Amino acid sequence: MDASAPARPLFATEDPRLLDDLLRLAAAAGVEATVAHHAAHAVTEWNRAPAVVVGVDLLPALARLDPPPRRHVLVAGLSAHRHGAEVWEDALRTGAAAVLSLPADEPRLSALLTESAHARAEHAPVVAVIGGRGGAGASLLAIALAGAARRANLRSALVDADPLGSGLDTLLGREDAPGDRWGDLVARHGRLNWSALRSRLPEAGGIALVTWGQGPAAEVPPAAMHSVLTCAARGSDIVVADLPRGPDPGADEALRRASTVLLVVPAEVPAVFAAARTAPRLGRSARDVRLVVRESGGDVSAADVARTLDLPTACRVRADRGLLRGLRAGAPAAPDDPRSSPLAGTVDRLLSDLRSASGPSAADTGGPSPPTPVPSSVSRPDPGDPPHGNGGRTR
């Protein structure tokens, strides 16, 4: 192989129908692939390829060869094939992030192939912010982080992933700003270009906003969330996503995509109990979950919160009373001056810590590390989860 030639994704299968589908998707992504018709050939190419797709037909033989651990491994099969427990076991042995069924899971596979064509491109960190209980201040922290990035002369994108919230554009006083909302974005297909997309988004003081239109809540498909976050991470220095507390397909994809998740918890006993219901789900989907403790001056300390939830503390914040008064009076949320806003000063330091500590985003790894294969279209409930999600507003 020419060492100067671009690396190619590896397809390991001898199923002609599956290979036809894989090659079609590769052509659509603009990449050429290396094809291995035998497990031994796949092992020789295993570490060279930016991405590996293993057909269910070669999966058992490849698992027996015990290939070295690596990122960007998926297992794929046709929808006519039934994937039993032995498939999941072999997928685990190869380090696969998921077992996909074609054609249903073609968008996820297409995204991986597109990523492999740009394997050397750097991704900005994606920071997801979620409230430990309703009204915890997660949306305000997300806005403040984007504002800190602007003060640091960083290109930032602020993504509203909460379909039941009031909208980040509303909190920023930009609900009437022209530009595309989620309803316009979910209809688009294929790889997005950030420069072109950003020019069509509403913005607030230089911050690009991906947010909702007015009217009833609508679900964002996981593929659309993945495409937007990946696109934003390619063209920005930091992406901040505001997530709902309750399970949501698009928000769950944002969790998997995040390099860091910040769980905002007021230092109050009821809030800690509520956060204890949310934290396990975050830990299953994200590789780096940290606490932001909102101090209230009560008997519960930040150390108590961290010890109870068994999570590291990213920072402690105080209530920004001037900002809260402004919000209640209808003023836009704009904590911009660290000298007059306790929140702004804290998030400046938090932003610096997040950027210095962030490694590759989860999109670079295909999910949290180490990966656990799960059906991409099925969410497995956990016995410890509450039987019902929060159906109300989750801020």
UniProtKB/TrEMBL annotation:
Residues 13-120 form the Rv3660c-like CheY-like N-terminal domain. GO terms for cellular component: cytoplasmic side of plasma membrane; cytosol. InterPro entries: P-loop_NTPase (IPR027417), ParA/MinD_ATPase (IPR050625), Rv3660c (IPR022521), Rv3660c_N (IPR059050). Residues 329-395 are annotated as: Disordered. GO terms for molecular function: ATP binding; ATP hydrolysis activity. One of its GO terms (biological process) is negative regulation of cell division. This is Secretion/DNA translocation related CpaE-like protein. It comes from Streptomonospora salina.
